[in-house]
Amino acid sequence: MSWTYIQGILMLAGINMIAVLGLSLLTGFTGLFSFGHAGFMAIGAYVGAWISASPASTPAGLGLPFILAIVGGGAAAGIVSYFIGRISLNLKGDYFCIATLGFGEAIRLIFNNVNRFGGARGWPGVPGRSTFLVILIADVIAILFLANLVKSRHGRNMIAVREEELAAQIAGINVFRYKMISLIISAVYAGVAGVFFAHYMTFIQPKMFSLTKSTELTIIVIFGGLGSISGSVLGALVLTALPELLRAFEIWRLVFYGAAVILIMVSRPKGLMGGMELTPSGIRKVLAERNALREAKTKLLADAQSGEED
Fold this sequence. Notes:
mainly alpha; ABC transporter involved in vitamin B12 uptake, BtuC; transmembrane; transmembrane helix
């Protein structure tokens, strides 16, 4: 297994990680399940490709710097999410999830019929500007931004909305506003991931952003652990690399992949991390909880033994 092959897997994992971190904010920290984030990735991918592609290679390209493609793709996804949020965030429970599912499929069908960007045949004129270093830097920035956001007052308000929406509203938190902020940030993350994906593959096609992709992102978030940034990072690394590691099994690899996901979810219903963070404070908290539990068990045994002696 060559370093180039391993690097390619890590780059795909890094791209998925950006989208998963955004979805983790929406689902894990705000409590809104979305099955339409592949649509935001598609918007980022196509807008980013349109901005960066050379007019000499494709009539649809503007030939601008890659950094503008990243900003433009993320901004486009964020703007679209604002209008989607205005329509759908007032829906309760499963209805929001169904609305996002419909949005994701609608975006895929729209790009499927836009001949300027290749339509269903795809768009092969995307420059290959996604490098390992650039994706790594983007991952670090995405993690740091999300970690600081979650620790801030805004992040605590989002968690309060997740825990009990009515109580948060009574406490004076603008529930709709924080849902909207969470949706926009998660869409920007997905849009940026779409830009990197397009410039890594150098070819994009609407079917790459189907419901399957949205489901994959949601599975990674749940697999890693809701409400855990570390879990999202580990989930993206594990579930992106796992199908490649099982490639030797050919047609059975997806069966083993599904079985591995089910095994983890059965053995650890809260995901790999279960809401815990791989930070010094997070590790100290877990150790303190385990010590308290051990001391409580020891005290109960001692009380039981003294009661028998009496």
